[in-house]
Amino acid sequence: MNIDVSALKYDERAIFALRSLYSAYGYSYYKMSKFEEYDLYVRNKDFLVSDSVITFTDTNGRLMALKPDVTLAIIRHIHDEPGVVQKLTYNENVYRVSQKTHTFKEIMQVGLECIGAIDDYCICEVLELAALSLRRISPHCVLDIAHLGILAAIIDDFSFSERSRADILRCASEKNAHELRSICRRSGVEENKAQALLDLVSLCDRPREALPKLRALLGKSGSARLADQLAQLERIVGVFAGTDVEDMLRVDFSVVNDLNYYNGIVFRGFVEGVPTGVLSGGQYDRLMRKMKRQSGAIGFAIYLDLLERLNTAAREYDVDTLLLYDRGDSPERVRACVKELAAEGGSVCAQKEVPQGCRFRRLMKLTESGATPIEGHA
Amino acid sequence: MLNIALPKGRLGEKVYGMFARAGYECEGVLDPGRRLIFENEQKGVRYFWVKPSDVAIYVERGAADIGVAGKDILLEHGPDVYELLDLRVGICRMAVAAKSDFHDDPERTLRVASKFVNIAQNYYASRGRDIDIIQINGSVELAPILDLSDVIVDIVETGTTLKENDLHVIDTVVPISARLIANKASFKFKNSAIVSIVDALLPLTEENT
Question: What is the CATH number of the domain that holds B150?
């Protein structure tokens, strides 16, 4: 099959580029059904981006859902294999309520999941693939990276109430230092400890600048748990020292995924020209436990619908040549003329009338002498 | 060039004054006539005035890199933006108000009228109180007077309008002030320009305390 890549839309080209990238690293393509049992999503509702799910009753009476998420469905269908890491990639539609329009939207996602005996190498590989994916989408891109374990350890250390914990995570995601300071004051957190938290959420630097700051912020805490988490972040980020990927990384603790499902490294990718994150991912061992799996997992998804904004090269014409013919013209003559014009290059559309709003480079009329330019439109 | 969305009106003029004092002045901003966009190329800023309730949308969607929005708007609509500074201007509060003879009967569903339905719902949900929310877009004070609602949730600045209508504040939901917000992607790609503005504005917010 010959594929003219220039005829593809931006998101279609991205699917090709990304799938070939992932398969080069040994990720196998995972195809799944559009539907899953509703029960799967009800039990893990907090994991979903939106609460609402499109449901219907199958012919056998089971309540089904158009899948609002891919990760849950993949975990459900794979089995633990001790010592093995299953590397899967997918491109699937998910059905979610748009937070802007409050109506359901079909969203094409491309992503990968690395499930099994996850180690530091697996985390680095997924991070690198996330970075390379962004670069394939646009040369101007940034991958924010954080360690949820660090944030969780600090919050646990401060013994915040359940409500304050939720507020602190929200403030971290908003880089809202002023409100964070109020919450710390209300909760009786010492000023110097509160300042460390404020500095943490304000961080948005390349690893070589961020890591020394982090060490200075967290080093004095004396918490062995915090030291472990920081050491892991340093190990992971350190792998990319001096590489192209390092330049794309920003250590930024506003990447906050649900602590009930995610742990460890989390990340979010941005490309210039799209106002929101186009890639989201992280390590989700806690979700695996909730779904009675013993192994770990890390993965990410790219929201292809957001890439539409990058497709700025608007087409000037709908068709290169619009060929008008009459009812009396035989199909053989019209076909021959279309072939002849197409051989000159460009697209040809044969019509009896000019379609409303059709933009064409040239307008031709099929006459006795063949295709003749129409004056003023040639 | 940093695109900055300012809220039209007195609050916006006050906020622009802060930007100007911080070193980001721009000719013509306070005397717009029919012009919509004002640019100071040297300072790398481009201002535009928008309806206060639209600032967060402009910023969230990336039409503006940063902007100034009231905390009421941010709480009500929950845009996916960074909230970088409390500018400490436009200070007021979101409050629950009722007629002076109001008594809350916990056996009845409380009827709450408000423009800010999400804020009101979240406030009462956090207290486990069952409410019937009534969305009203103007003259909210009328609702309890005409027995459309038991209480209202609205912005209170001085309390004069409430007093004139025999209403009084029975609880404060949340303090409100103007906040500097930033688009999340712009914060990555125009980081040094945004951080410079934040750093320049920060001492001015402390003057507003």
Answer: 3.40.190.10
Domain count, chain B: 2
**A172 to chain B: closest CA residue:** B82
Domain ranges, residue B84: 2-90+177-207
pLDDT digits (tens, 9 = 90+) for A236-284: 999 999 999 999 999 999 999 888 788 899 999 999 999 999 999 999 9
CA A369 to chain B, closest CA, distance in angstroms equals 54
pLDDT at B132 over 90: yes
Flag if B83 and A204 touch (Cβ within 8 Å): no
On whether both B181 and B86 belong to a single domain, the answer is yes
Range(s) of the domain holding residue A288: 5-163+205-212+222-310
Residue A143: CATH number of its domain: 3.30.930.10
Q: Do B6 and B84 sit in the same domain of this protein?
A: yes
* Nearest to A288, CA basis, from A277, A280, A299, A278: A299
Same-domain status, B112 and B160: yes
Same domain, A75 and A111: yes
Q: Kindly report which listed range (A34-43, A175-184, A295-304, B193-202) carries the lowest average pLDDT score.
A: A34-43
Task: Show the tokens assigned to A114.
Answer: 């690395």
Same-domain pairing of B42 and B75: yes
Tell me the two tokens of residue A326.
């009459």
Q: Do A272 and B60 touch (CB under 8 A)?
A: no
Q: Is the dihedral of CA A122, A125, A127, A130 positive or negative?
A: negative
Query: What average pLDDT does range A21-48 have in this prediction?
Result: 87
B61:A174 CB<8 A = no
Buried b / exposed e over A92-131, threshold 16 CB at 10 Å, is bebbbbeeeeeebeebbbbbbbbbbebeeebbbbbbbbbb
**Integer Cα distance of B13 and B19 in angstroms:** 10
Q: Which residues in B lie closer than 8 A to residue A254 (C-beta atoms)?
A: 82, 184
A312 pLDDT higher than 70: no
pLDDT at A337 over 60: yes
pLDDT at B123 over 90: yes
